[in-house]
Amino acid sequence: MFQHVFRNFGLPEDIVSDRGPQFTSRVWGALCGCLGIGVSLSSGYHPQSNGQAERLNQEIGRFLRSYCSREQHRWSEFLPWVEYAQNSLIHSSTGLTPFQCVLGYQPPLFPWSGEPSDVPAVEEWYRLSQEVWERAHVRLQRAVRRQRIQADRRRRPHPSYQVGQKVWLSTRNLRLRLPCKKLSSKFIGPFEIIRRVNPVAYRLRLPASYRICPTFHVSLLKPAHPAVGEAGTGAAPPPPLDIEGSPAYQVRARLQYLVDWEGYGPEERSWVDSGDILDPSLIEDFHRTHPGRPAPRPRGRPQRRTSGVEHLLVFSNVGDPEGVAPACGGGHGGIPL
């Protein structure tokens, strides 16, 4: 740290890192404490907490794979030029290059006039260096633009939780002591939130047998809705109805459509409430071509009742714990299937 960071840039105010043993050790904590450096550790199983460093490593790895895949033993020779290209690349977030942010100006690159040199070795070095830098610069720009488009398509506002609220914890990155992970639960808990570390990370009250970091990113959490009668009102669930000697229960209607979004592949299909479809003609065309499918009740038509029990239609997604497919806000134009 002193040889490569402190002597060039000075002591930092805060260091963001993952939870590697070298960053969670007592020696590292004591050193940063004596120097007045804050230590910010990323939440468990969420490398996006240190997204700038992870993203930079991916860009460098992508260039090295594409340029020296057939000469992998020479990868270290191209690394300085990759670093130079990355530091000269304009970032969309700042509109400046890293050189401009740190130094205040952009260092000139290859101030060579193009005239041949009397020394063949020098001329060959200039030619190869310029070729390597230009390839690195073009590939980095393409990668940044492509990744930004893909990330913006899937970004959604994250939910906000309160201390004391119970949430389910995803088992995506947990080592469950079960023979088959595919047949195991997707979420475990619910667990109580005991602290809000930052707007996107929360600390949970985990059992003592869970030897993992209790801080998790919001993407690994799902709100736990209290069951009927658990909200503190003391109301008991209603008894089942007796229909010809068999128990029956009333359900709430929720008609949904499986929407194929225009311009997106079949993996992006989602269930949408009928009220979220902005173009009513899409629903009319669907029921005109599929008269046998469940349809919303027309206005003015009374609901049919048999023995005092409502006949309700539920278009649900298989595997949803609530029995109802998750609704998705409509921002694209689509057709119901």
From TrEMBL:
<dbReference type="InterPro" id="IPR056924">
    <property type="entry name" value="SH3_Tf2-1"/>
</dbReference>
<dbReference type="InterPro" id="IPR050951">
    <property type="entry name" value="Retrovirus_Pol_polyprotein"/>
</dbReference>
<dbReference type="Pfam" id="PF24626">
    <property type="entry name" value="SH3_Tf2-1"/>
</dbReference>
<dbReference type="GO" id="GO:0005634">
    <property type="term" value="C:nucleus"/>
</dbReference>
<feature type="domain" description="Chromo">
    <location>
        <begin position="241"/>
        <end position="298"/>
    </location>
</feature>
<feature type="domain" description="Integrase catalytic">
    <location>
        <begin position="1"/>
        <end position="106"/>
    </location>
</feature>
<feature type="region of interest" description="Disordered">
    <location>
        <begin position="285"/>
        <end position="306"/>
    </location>
</feature>
<protein>
    <recommendedName>
        <fullName>Integrase catalytic domain-containing protein</fullName>
    </recommendedName>
</protein>
<dbReference type="InterPro" id="IPR016197">
    <property type="entry name" value="Chromo-like_dom_sf"/>
</dbReference>
<dbReference type="InterPro" id="IPR001584">
    <property type="entry name" value="Integrase_cat-core"/>
</dbReference>
<dbReference type="Pfam" id="PF00385">
    <property type="entry name" value="Chromo"/>
</dbReference>
<dbReference type="InterPro" id="IPR000953">
    <property type="entry name" value="Chromo/chromo_shadow_dom"/>
</dbReference>
<dbReference type="InterPro" id="IPR012337">
    <property type="entry name" value="RNaseH-like_sf"/>
</dbReference>
<dbReference type="InterPro" id="IPR023780">
    <property type="entry name" value="Chromo_domain"/>
</dbReference>
<dbReference type="GO" id="GO:0015074">
    <property type="term" value="P:DNA integration"/>
</dbReference>
<dbReference type="GO" id="GO:0003676">
    <property type="term" value="F:nucleic acid binding"/>
</dbReference>
<dbReference type="InterPro" id="IPR036397">
    <property type="entry name" value="RNaseH_sf"/>
</dbReference>
